[in-house]
Amino acid sequence: MRTPDFYIGGIGAFLPPTVTVQDAVAEGLYPAEDVELHQLGGAAVAGDLPAPEMALRAAQQAVKQFGQPATDFDLMIYASTWHQGPDGWLPHSYLQRHLVGGAVPAVEIRQGCNGIFSAMMLAVSHLRAEPHRRHALLVAADNYGTPMMDRWRMNPGTIAGDAGTAVVLTKDPGFAELLAVSSVTVPEAEELHRGGEPLFPPTATVGRSLSFAGRFQQQVVARSVGMAALAKAQDLMIATVADTVAECGLTFDDLDKVAFMNYSREVVEQRCMMPLGLPMSRSSWDYGRTVGHCGASDHVLSLKHLVETGQLRPGQHMLMLGTGPGINLACALIKIVGTPERA
């Protein structure tokens, strides 16, 4: 979906202190043999700081940078991948109370690690629907430090990190232009993230831990349709990127930086950079490896880091590319047009 005249007017992030893989190995949390194999550096660990509080702090930073009252926004979308607080309670209401107010419509979406892409698509459509609608606040946050999640063994080549992020999507000029955002799903692969587990009762209600590695292994043993669909998903992901980039009149060579999920080096290189024909030096992996896979926050964290460190400058382009349960494949193309104000 082409998104001309939509901009990022503010960006915020709350990233807690990181724990290195060396410290995790010393504490018996991370396999020593995985350090060299996956070349991950560590993960941001929030302790008992709730995800909605991280989201609020990131959102406050983005709104401050944008420079307009949060109460003037026309929509807020909250993306999450993991439990946010008490069952039966909605995390976006916390941000309504403490930041945007009750007159701003707010919703939570569950699109896994691709939540920010879905938030962009929904926000663009909402703002386009009425000329007077101008600004949307998109937030994401997760804290994986719960008894049902082992962040250090989330998945082979993946360590879970905690973070909160936020962007202001606006029709007003901003430091970055959202050129296009696209999404497609391979539904025959949905069981990969489900494994052989029953749909009812939900795992959280019976205290069963989440193990993506265990679910994938079950699918391998079962020789499932989902495993057979993996090759299709990989091809479709690259085809979706190609269509999106071409739609904007660009080629892969025009991509100055690429933010994939914060996975291991071999996954980022083999599943993302090599198919695009681009070197790892154009990826955000050097940064992502230090903070862990932070759910739906990975891409915003990378954008903020690359802009603030001068690795993305006006006139340059960034591709955000993600995969999530479904299997959902999504991407967004961004052009840097200015320098954001310090929040």
Automatic annotation (TrEMBL):
<dbReference type="InterPro" id="IPR013747">
    <property type="entry name" value="ACP_syn_III_C"/>
</dbReference>
<dbReference type="GO" id="GO:0044550">
    <property type="term" value="P:secondary metabolite biosynthetic process"/>
</dbReference>
<keyword id="KW-0012">Acyltransferase</keyword>
<feature type="domain" description="Beta-ketoacyl-[acyl-carrier-protein] synthase III C-terminal">
    <location>
        <begin position="246"/>
        <end position="336"/>
    </location>
</feature>
<dbReference type="GO" id="GO:0004315">
    <property type="term" value="F:3-oxoacyl-[acyl-carrier-protein] synthase activity"/>
</dbReference>
<dbReference type="GO" id="GO:0006633">
    <property type="term" value="P:fatty acid biosynthetic process"/>
</dbReference>
<dbReference type="Pfam" id="PF08541">
    <property type="entry name" value="ACP_syn_III_C"/>
</dbReference>
<protein>
    <submittedName>
        <fullName>3-oxoacyl-[acyl-carrier-protein] synthase-3</fullName>
    </submittedName>
</protein>
<dbReference type="Pfam" id="PF08545">
    <property type="entry name" value="ACP_syn_III"/>
</dbReference>
<feature type="domain" description="Beta-ketoacyl-[acyl-carrier-protein] synthase III N-terminal">
    <location>
        <begin position="108"/>
        <end position="174"/>
    </location>
</feature>
<dbReference type="InterPro" id="IPR016039">
    <property type="entry name" value="Thiolase-like"/>
</dbReference>
<keyword id="KW-0808">Transferase</keyword>
<dbReference type="InterPro" id="IPR013751">
    <property type="entry name" value="ACP_syn_III_N"/>
</dbReference>
